[in-house]
């Protein structure tokens, strides 16, 4: 295994409300030098969370929201940033109430994902929400999201839908399905 490249410099080359673009000047163990660019997040130190809300051991909830990247409405799991004064589960509960209109009494940590780690520094924590109850909070979404019920027994059909394309959501659902089948 090679040693990690030495970061010679890290320079912010662009910044938006949500992202910073950084240029990393790297020197590899064999002497090669390269510039890599990455999205580094806002720098706020806030965590991101994705919620798998389970109605029972098989049925879960998705939300349909406009996705600017695909310029269309997409099915996904409730997700968002955790406020600095919240725990991971408190932020997850708030996001679930804002986006799906439910709270949860039971929480389990599942995993942490990166998305495109060659180009992004961001991570998202996946949590399982069970023992749901109806409660809606007003959030920062521009419109109320449609809530769609689905079954863990039919993930292939979900994956085949044209309005479902987020790999993190699919991976989280398969992980939760396997964990629930093994007695989580």
UniProtKB/TrEMBL annotation:
CDD domains: NUDIX_ADPRase_NudE. Keywords: Hydrolase. The keyword Hydrolase applies. InterPro entries: NUDIX_hydrolase-like_dom_sf, NUDIX_hydrolase_CS, NUDIX_hydrolase_dom. GO terms for biological process: nucleoside phosphate metabolic process; ribose phosphate metabolic process. One of its GO terms (cellular component) is cytosol. One of its GO terms (molecular function) is ADP-sugar diphosphatase activity. This is ADP-ribose diphosphatase.
């Amino acid at each position: 295994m090679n040693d990690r490249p030495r970061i010679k410099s890290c320079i912010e080359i662009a910044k938006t409300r949500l992202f910073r673009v950084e240029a990393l000047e790297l020197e590899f163990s064999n002497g090669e030098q390269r510039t890599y660019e990455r999205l580094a997040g806002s720098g706020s130190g806030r965590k991101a969370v994705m919620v798998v809300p389970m109605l029972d051991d098989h049925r879960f909830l998705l939300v349909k929201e406009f996705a600017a990247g695909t310029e269309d409405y997409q099915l996904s799991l409730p997700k968002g940033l955790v406020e600095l004064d919240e725990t991971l589960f408190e932020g997850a509960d708030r996001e679930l109430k804002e986006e799906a209109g439910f709270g949860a009494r039971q929480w389990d940590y599942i995993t942490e994902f990166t998305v495109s780690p060659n180009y992004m520094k961001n991570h998202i924590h996946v949590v399982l929400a069970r023992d749901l109850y109806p409660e809606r909070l007003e959030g920062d979404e521009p419109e109320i999201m449609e809530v769609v019920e689905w079954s863990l027994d039919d993930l292939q059909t979900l994956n085949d839908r044209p309005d479902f394309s987020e790999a993190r959501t699919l991976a989280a659902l398969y992980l939760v399905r396997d964990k629930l089948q093994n007695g989580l």
